[in-house]
Design brief:
Structural class: alpha/beta
CATH class of the largest domain: Alpha Beta
CATH superfamily of the largest domain: Response regulator
Strand content: 15-25%
Shape: elongated
Number of helices: 14
Number of domains: 3
Radius of gyration: 25 Å
Low-confidence stretches: none
Mean pLDDT: 90
Distance between the termini: 80 Å
Length: 336
């Protein structure tokens, strides 16, 4: 069944049916009702491509993610799931495009082909040429994360600097005097990856403020690297606690501590900024500032729809700073 058959049965032109479906021109109430009755009788569902053409939109959002070869963290997967679900609520599709290395061709096709109405960009660096490219393209976009100077941008982000600082203060309140930050990989830190850079800044300032001796280590994003990282941490004399944003390495860090004969939290305290379900599933459950990834992804979609509807509107952003959820992985510094 097509628009021509609907027009014939309703006694109107094809263009009138098109106007009634798209809302691009006014159609009398009686004519609209007649067309709707025919559509209901025939069970007609407009072809998505035809509807998009009539509206001048693709009804598709672009989501730029890291390459599939880099296993996504729990938070990243939550971002993807929440964006897809939030878009579906508005009857929109999501085109997922990897970005990084050879995959930047996919990113360019996303922008150059005008295949989407707007873009959500994940995993943002302090200096990110993709943000500059999006600005040049003229496509509406929102970032999950933000560049070092985000003025003029629409974004949502976690306040890693504040949250890691709170983690250090929590450990200091428990009497820990030497603490280590287990950051993301050296590659990500060197690239200016936003969460890693802001976590480092928050850790450094809080340690100085509380008189805590702070050290930092970079750790690749996988469990075996986490085990090796735990060994490195335990070689540092006097370290009794660690703070981390490295979700993928967490299980390995716990295994490494256990293999060394240390109990959490009696012998060593561990705290982080990670996804809630990951923190709760660890043994023991991790004391953590839980990243509200589902809420952030949903908010990113809402901001993007607002930007698509009103391209000249002033920029908007949202910075999330959830409280620390006290669980079972931190306790007062053990007495030597």
């Amino acid at each position: 069944m097509n628009i021509g058959e609907i027009a014939r049965r309703a006694g109107v032109s094809r263009s009138t049916v098109s106007y009634a479906l798209s809302g691009k021109r006014t159609v009398s109430e009686a004519t609209r009702r007649r067309i709707e009755d025919v559509i209901a009788e025939l069970g007609f569902k407009p072809n998505a491509a035809a509807r998009a053409l009539a509206e001048g939109r693709t009804r598709t959002l672009g989501l730029v993610v890291p390459p599939a070869g880099r296993r996504l963290t729990a938070v990243q997967l939550d971002f993807v799931a929440s964006v897809v679900e939030a878009a579906a609520v508005h009857d929109l599709d999501v085109l997922v495009s990897p970005s990084g290395g050879d995959h930047d061709r996919s990113f360019e096709r996303l922008l150059g082909g005008r295949r989407v109405d707007g873009v959500i960009l994940m995993e943002v660096r302090f200096e990110d040429p993709r943000v500059d490219r999006l600005r040049q393209s003229g496509l509406p976009f929102v970032t999950i994360g933000r560049v070092e100077h985000p003025e003029g941008s629409w974004w949502v982000d976690v306040d890693y600097e504040t949250l890691i600082s709170r983690c250090v203060h929590h450990l200091a309140d428990l009497g820990h005097e030497r603490v280590v930050l287990i950051n993301r990989s050296a590659e990500l830190v060197a690239s200016g990856y936003g969460p890693a850079m802001r976590a480092l800044a928050g850790f450094t300032s809080a340690a100085e403020e509380r008189g805590v001796q702070g050290s930092t280590v970079c750790c690749p994003d996988d469990a075996p690297a986490g085990e090796a990282c735990a060994e490195d941490v335990l070689r540092m004399a006097g370290v009794t606690a660690a703070v981390t944003i490295n979700e993928a390495a967490l299980a390995g860090v716990q295994r490494g501590l256990h293999r060394a004969g240390l109990r959490l939290p009696q012998d060593f305290s561990l705290i982080g900024v990670v996804a809630r379900h990951l923190a709760e599933d660890l043994n023991p459950p991790l004391t953590s500032a839980d990243v509200p990834a589902i809420e952030m992804g949903t908010h990113a979609v809402q901001l993007l729809l607002e930007r698509i509807a009103a391209p000249e509107a002033p920029e908007r952003h949202e910075l999330f700073a959830p409280p620390i959820s006290l669980r079972s992985s931190t306790s007062p510094r053990p007495r030597s």
